[in-house]
Every structure is written in C-alpha cells, then in structure tokens.
Amino acid sequence: MMRRTADGSAGDADYGAIGGAYGAYRQPEPRIAALIEQALAGARTVVNVGAGAGSYESAAFDTTAVEPSASMRAQRPPHLPAAVDAVAEHLPFADDAFDAAMTTFSVHQWSDLRAGLREMRRVARGPVVVLTCDPLLVRDFWLYEYAPLVLDAEARRYPSIDDITATLGGRAEVTTVPIPADCRDGFNEAYYARPECLLDPAARQSCSAWSFVEPDVALGYTEHLRTDLADGTWDERHGHLRRQPFLHGSLVLIRAT
Questions:
Q1: CATH number, domain 15-256
Q2: In whole angstroms, how far apart are CA 96 and each of 52, 92, 175?
Q3: 65: which strand partners?
C-alpha cells in the first residue's frame, strides 16, 4: 500500500521536513535542461511526473506537472502552472493524453517503480524521458570517502537503468549527462569541484540521501570534510577536479520510445 506523509510526499523521503530549500538550491541547470528539451523535441504537450518545484519545465512545451508533496508544490514559481496533486503510480489522465512524459530526479522516490513507469508510458503517445542516476556509479564519487552511508543510501534507492528501460519497453537511448563545475542544480555530484558547498546544511538537506543518516553521523561526515579542506588534504587528493570543467559521473538521461 502506498503511504503518504502529512505533507503528501509519496516516496521514502519526507519533503515536508527536508524540502524547504529545494526552490533555492535545486535550480535547473541550463545545460542539463537543454538535453532534456532536445529529448522531448517534437512534443507539444508534456506531463512532468514528480515535478517538485518545477525545475526543467521548459517554456517550449505545454507542461502539466504532477507533484504529491505540498511543500514542493508551494515552491513552484509564479510563472509556472500549479501542479496536480497525484502520484506517479496513479496518474489521473486518459490514455495517450500527452505527446511525451518526463521525470527528473524522481524515480528513486516512487513506492512502485514499474507501476509509475507504466503509467507514464500509458499517458504518453511519444517518448518517455527520465533523468536519474546509475546506482552502479554512485559510489565512484569522492564524497564516498567522507559520507559512505549517504551514497550507500543513494545507490540503494536509485533503480537500475536496466529495470527502467525494460519496464518502459520499446527502444531506449541512455546518455551520460556531463555535470558542469558550476552546476546550478545542487545534487551531490554537482559539487564535485566545489566541496565547500557541502558544508552548508541547507545544501545537504536539499540532497534527500542525507536525510537517511542520523544527524550526528552526518555532522561527523561534515566535520571530516571541513578538516580535510582546511588542512589541504582534500585538495591533495582531488584538487584537480577544481580545474575540470565537467564530470562524467552517475547522471544519465534515458529516452524511451
């Protein structure tokens, strides 16, 4: 049975508790947005499932947003239409209601991945586009040295790319998404060249995996990072990343037709 928090969150994280800063820290990254828009090219109507605060909703499309969390719906900027209060597993739309369907950083929140993906396929005449992370690559990031349980949680929560493509069926293209060093969307890997950003509690709170470790554990991880930044240890090991314009990490874009 699907359980929803008082906030309406339907996944494994309570966005009423952790989602307050998402609108500020999880801004759409234009270069990632361009790839999503390209994957949706040719569509006029798009449903955005697990839309959050509205990141990656392009003005190029007539977008209908679906978001179960009241906290996230409240953070949608005024120029975007209000989101429908519903969950991925039960989309309140007719078959083939949209030209395309999209979801970004959301599939790992769903209580039933296959049901949600089948619903996206049901309501979309054309492509289904999914921005997610490959769980096989999540732990390859330097943060695993400092916050192993955080990235263990991420790897455990993200569904396998094979499961996503098999459920969607048809023809699937899986593309690694380059993450720019100045990425505006504040997920963990977005700070690969700016480790100091993860000392900010609001930045960490806007990455839901941090909510799966005890506060004292998270504090210990943060202090370890703070110490290594202060004495130069981090830069000795990873300082080259500060000069690297893009990271090819776990972020992937799936387009299934």
A1: 3.40.50.150
A2: 23, 12, 26
A3: 48
Look at the chain and count its residues. Answer: 257
Domain boundaries, the chain: 15-256
Alpha helices in the chain (DSSP H): 15-18, 22-25, 30-39, 70-74, 113-123, 148-157, 161-168, 201-205, 215-230, 233-238
Task: Write down the pLDDT at residue 71.
Answer: 84
Cα 102 to Cα 116: distance, rounded to the nearest angstrom: 12
pLDDT of residue 22: 60
Tell me the two tokens of residue 8.
């309406």
Q: Which DSSP state fits 151?
A: H
Tokens of 191: 């700070």
13-42 pLDDT, tens digit each: 555 554 455 667 888 999 999 999 999 999
How far apart, in whole angstroms, are the C-alpha atoms of residue 28 and residue 34?
10
* Side-chain-facing half-sphere of 146: CA atoms under 13 Å: 26
Q: What is the pLDDT of residue 75?
A: 87
N-to-C CA span, the chain: 30
Give the residue ranges of the chain where pLDDT is below 70.
Answer: 1-23
Give residues with Cβ within 8 angstroms of 219, minimum separation 6. Answer: none
- Give residue 9's pLDDT: 45
Residue with tokens 């990656």: 56
What predicted TM-score, i.e. pTM, was given to this entire model? Answer: 0.90
4 close to 10: Cβ distance less than 8 angstroms: yes
